[in-house]
Design goal:
- The chain is mainly α.
- It folds into 2 domains: 42 residues, no CATH class; 231 residues, MetI-like fold.
- It is 68% helix and 1% strand.
- It is built from 16 helices and 2 strands.
- Helix 10 runs antiparallel to helix 13.
- The longest helix is centred in the N-terminal third of the chain and has 35 residues.
- The radius of gyration is 29 Å and the shape is flat.
- InterPro entries: ABC_transporter_permease, MetI-like, MetI-like_sf.
Length: 327
């Protein structure tokens, strides 16, 4: 009797005599046929164990992201609604920090400088691609040349800032020796921001070069050979064959470059301190300045929220564009 009942449960489902949605339809067995004609799979004990193992492996990463990413974001959003100096009790002020921020002239100066950083910093991916294409060849001594181009990436931002501060020095700097006269690059409100960006492009270009060198190793050689047989070479080969395969690498290089441009801080702190007359400050340095120098943590959190929103909009746009192209 038990064997026959089991056999009926595992066999094909019998048509129900009742109407649709009746208890006969709702009580389908795990092995019953679905309306589309496909048999539903029963979840085996092995599948359950695999699913449980996957959840257990993902749990530590999810906990880490929740603690170190999600919780700080929510805390910053909450803090931006308060007036707090870090010691006395915080007082709720609502959107007053945002209202004050949008009426501050320094905010628009910092925002304009961030846009300048963004436009000029996007020179790093094409420059990195050009260097990667040059280094992606098998010639004698190419490893030494690669290490020389790779060197700026391993340097600290503080070291890069000091090197370029000495380079720009109008009295003994290399730029003054090359031009024959000194130019106060970091002391001129019009030249300070472009001078810092030029210093930042040095390691950023090296980073993009590394990304593209890695991407060039994953190219489909069959497509390249087929394109050569069709007569493609030079610019047409690069544009129609190589760049489409490097689209994920380009996306990563652009996103990292944009984030680096929007969170630029270390070189500004070392080279100008936001000066002269706050002409080279950016949102990240403005946020630090308000928090550390003036103990306005709520106001600083409001700046951080605005900066995060700008990054989020830009990254979501590029993600959607990448997904659309992949489809």
């Amino acid at each position: 009797m038990f064997h026959s009942a089991t056999h009926r449960a595992d066999g094909p489902a019998q048509p129900s005599a009742g109407p649709a949605g009746s208890s006969g339809d709702r009580a389908r067995t795990p092995g019953a046929a679905s309306p589309g004609g496909h048999r539903r799979r029963r979840v085996t004990p092995t599948a359950r164990r695999q699913r449980r193992a996957a959840f257990l492996f993902l749990a530590p990463a999810c906990v880490m992201v929740a603690i170190y990413v999600v919780w700080p974001i929510l805390s910053t959003l909450r803090l931006s609604l308060y007036n707090w100096d870090g010691m006395s009790p915080a007082s709720f002020v609502g959107l007053a920090n945002y209202v004050e921020l949008f009426h501050a002239p320094t905010f628009y100066t910092a925002l304009r400088n961030n846009l300048i950083w963004l436009v000029l910093f996007l020179l790093a991916p094409p420059a990195g691609l050009a260097i990667a294409l040059y280094l992606n060849q098998q010639v004698a001594g190419i490893r030494l040349v690669k290490s020389l181009f790779f060197a700026p990436f391993v340097l600290s931002g503080v070291v890069v800032g000091l090197i370029f501060a000495w380079f720009y020095d109008p009295t003994f700097g290399l730029l003054a020796l090359m031009l024959g006269h000194g130019i106060p690059v970091l002391g001129d409100a019009r030249l300070a921001t472009p001078g810092i960006i030029l210093a930042a492009l040095w390691p950023q270009t090296a980073y993009c070069m590394i990304l593209y060198l890695t991407g060039l190793t994953t190219l489909n050689s069959e497509q390249i050979e087929a394109a050569r047989m069709e007569g493609a070479k030079g610019w047409s080969m690069l544009w129609h064959v190589i760049l489409p395969q490097l689209r994920p690498t380009t996306f990563m290089a652009v996103v990292v470059t944009v984030i680096g441009a929007l969170r630029s801080f270390d070189l500004i702190s070392v080279m100008t301190g936001g000066g002269p007359f706050e002409s080279s400050t950016v949102l990240a340095y403005f946020m630090y300045d308000q928090a550390v120098k003036y103990y306005r943590l709520g106001y600083s959190a409001a700046i951080a929220v605005v900066l995060f929103a700008i990054m989020l909009v830009y990254i979501i746009y590029h993600l959607r564009h990448l997904i659309r192209n992949e489809r």
